[in-house]
Specification:
Elements lengths: L1 H8 L1 H27 L4 H9 L1 H19 L1 H18 L6 H29 L5 H21 L10 H12 L1 H6 L15 H7 L1 H27 L4 H26 L4 H23 L8 H12 L2 H12 L2 H33 L3 H22 L21 H15 L3 H13 L1
């Protein structure tokens, strides 16, 4: 019952997160459609939308200093207001330069907002309830990301109504936090592990986090561009985007179950091979070599596999690190994923402009194949983790701040080495629930 009370007491944070992700999920799709309708090429759209991750990475770096200087609530209110205002500017300009600036501003804002929100959750969590709080948070993220796509049916992307809806959703996130009586948590920025030592200890996990951003983020950012190019109507695009996002949620459970049964290098190879196979089918369907009705189910499976790469890769990294390194490594993995999320849309957008829309599923498929071959080669060289040394698999969306990622790392470490007292209290909680 204690865990339930903690989750209920943090409802303002969960409510704020839901509003934010509803707005952000709609915004990404809306900008892809709007950019296509006003004549931006896929290369231009990919480059503009990718700059969000420059802002996001920068926001992760500067937010701790902002929190230290002015406090959690002021940072949250200021950056949420900035993100809400930035959305409205898209309606008055078609300048790619201004769009780029707005995307960077939005990235900085959302990084700060997520760090503050997740800090509240982290402050409320203990060794006895961290898993339940984390799972509740993940459910909110996945459901809101999916639901945000359906708001696309409420207006015309050529007009301003949908942009106002995004702005309102982001603004509504301020209400529950501002009215909450919870005190601001004590915040400590995690120390980042340097890239080179982390790469030496877990090269495949490191590269997998990068490929997760390169493939999964790119697929979701450019899916609206592909849909417009294929002549889908607005309702069809909303449905298409919703099932692509939902795939990430549905695939996490079976992949998590499999992770307890086989070596994680083999699991990563399996996920990557799945991404390649279904990406190839989707690409051939887009080229009309395969029947067109195969595109949607194969795109669903492709998205599902790509959106689980981060969870598998992060678990693989955790398996290779000492306990003292797991929590701090999470911050570094977020930045690595952000680098892939920046490079991927630029590369794939350029390929779509030069080679056509079929590059949309084929380039991520090729990236999955190359990474799969490397993974198989490494596994034959003896890079395996004994089952007893494995960390807990945690289904993670790759778009978290390092606070939630650190919570996940801490939970994995606790599950790997539970104390006798923890087990006793966990049993009591199960009986209460």
């Amino acid at each position: 019952m204690a865990t339930r009370r903690v989750i209920v007491s943090t409802w303002p944070v969960f409510a704020g997160i839901i509003f934010l992700i509803l707005g952000n999920g709609l915004q990404g799709t809306l900008l892809g459609i709007r950019g296509s309708l006003i004549g931006f090429s896929p290369a231009m759209i990919g480059a503009v939308l990718a700059t969000y991750y420059i802002g996001y990475s920068f926001g992760c770096i500067v937010t701790p200093r902002l929190i230290k200087n002015v406090g959690h609530i002021r940072v949250y209110a200021a950056l949420a207001s900035l993100a809400s205002s930035a959305v409205l500017v898209y309606t008055v300009t078609d300048s790619a330069v201004i769009w780029t600036i707005l995307r960077i501003i939005t990235g900085v804002s959302f990084a700060a907002i997520f760090i503050v929100s997740e800090s509240w959750l982290n402050a409320s969590s203990t060794v006895y309830n961290r898993g339940k709080i984390l799972s509740t948070y993940m459910i909110c993220v996945f459901v809101a990301q999916t639901g945000g796509q359906l708001f696309l049916n409420l207006g015309d992307p050529r007009n301003f109504e949908l942009f106002i809806i995004v702005s309102v959703l982001i603004s509504l996130a301020l209400v529950p936090i501002s009215l909450s009586r919870r005190e601001a948590p004590n915040y400590q920025s995690p120390k980042k592990i340097e890239f080179r030592p982390l790469f030496r200890k877990a090269p495949l996990g490191f590269f997998g986090c990068f490929i997760s951003g390169f493939t999964g983020t790119t697929f979701l950012l450019l899916a609206p561009v592909y849909a417009v190019g294929e002549g889908m109507n607005q309702s069809a695009i909303a449905f298409f985007m919703a099932i692509l996002v939902a795939a990430g949620m549905f695939f996490q459970l079976p992949i998590g179950w499999i992770s307890d049964k086989i070596d994680r290098l083999k699991l990563l190879a399996f996920v990557l091979m799945g991404g390649f196979v279904f990406g190839l089918i989707a690409g051939l369907a887009a080229l009309s070599i395969f029947p067109s009705y195969l595109f949607l189910p194969s795109a669903f499976c492709l998205s599902g596999f790509m959106l689980t790469i981060y969870s598998v890769s992060a678990s693989l990294v955790n398996d290779s690190l000492d306990e003292s390194e797991i929590i701090n490594a999470s911050a570094t993995l977020i930045l690595i994923n952000g680098a892939g999320s920046f490079i991927g849309p630029i590369f794939v957008g350029f390929a779509m402009t030069v080679f056509g829309d079929a590059a949309f599923p084929l380039v991520p498929a090729i990236a999955c194949l190359v990474t799969c071959v490397i993974t198989i080669a490494r596994s034959h060289l003896g890079d395996t983790i004994r089952r007893k040394d494995r960390s807990e698999y945690i289904p993670l969306p790759d778009k978290l701040s390092y606070v939630a990622a650190s919570m996940a790392g801490e939970y994995a470490m606790e599950e790997e080495h539970p104390t006798e007292g923890d087990a006793d209290i966990s049993n009591v909680q199960k009986e209460d629930l």
